[in-house]
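Z., the sequence and structure:
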Amino acid sequence: MHVESAVLERYTEGANERQEALCCPVDYDASLLALLPTEIIEKDYGCGDPSRYVQPGDVVLDLGSGSGKICYMAAQLVGDQGRVIGVDMNDDMLALARKYQPEMANKLGGDRVHFCKGQIQDLARDLDAEINWLAANPVSDGDSLRDLEQWQQQQRKQQPLIADNSVDLIISNCVLNLVGDEQKQQLVDEIFRVLKPGGRIAISDIISDEAIPQHLKDDEQLWSGCISGAFQEEEMLATFRDVGFVGAAYDKWADEPWQVVEGIEFRSVTLTAMKPVEGRREDYGHTVIYRGPFSAVTDDAGRVYPRGVRIGTSEQSYQLLVEGPYADNFIGIAPAENAEAIACCIAAGTRRDAKTNKGAVHSGSGEASCC
């Protein structure tokens, strides 16, 4: 089986006629759907609503943008200062999404959505540019093949489809499972590459509760139907964690499986995580307190936070814990003054005396959520 060919064929059919088998029931925000053409809504396929994670001013990248539904929903949320990029490799889906761009730009008060032809596992490769180059420079022998390879290297380096560290939020709706297993690591690496430090992901996808046997992976209908290419539930978290993401969590988890095949449950989830901000760990006096209810928790860097104990952090770690993916679980105490560092760095697990933070600003007074 050639995974990409099977997926292209299935979603070409889906661009021309609605395919009920390709989508799970999802409760989308009706107010965001109101502006969208009916055809875009009817020919969209997904298993979640990652648009709920979009913030004003975001640069949003939608992997496998399909009919453009989530892109046009996100465009309403990013506002005048944001923009949305959709990447898809299916010409029919791209044509459908682009068909309504003038109409949607008029409704939105500006053209803030752009659709690109590309493979989500190779976000540096600009397929439209490559097709145009090949039209003018057909490959017919060894020399012209070398010319193509040289052009491809230059294009990736000088004009990548999506640049390094350029996106605030990456979203995707039931598409990662369509990428071949041998390319899934490259896919996650690419997601990490293009995301800005401090950027977020919200990936709605299908996962399995058990490892998927090879005979199911070899079934083209199951693969193109978002089933047999799914990440296993532990594997998905581990893959994103191992590439460098922090705070990875299943923010949404369907109570009931979407399908059960040979006893394996396939369900919809939304994975959220953040690309950390790198920097030195200067100590300016920032402090966090883990709320509980557990006796202690450990972050992705191995730092331990006992319940109720004031722990000193760097400014970067403070922002991650108090404003980032761990925010519901920590009380933040910012120094009253943040001028020169107390020390050049702070060791993990350093307890902070309460006297250090007298008069400081406390944040995170809301209710805690279970970690």
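The two ends are 41 Å apart (CA to CA). The first helix runs from residue 3 to 16.

Let me know what you think.
H.
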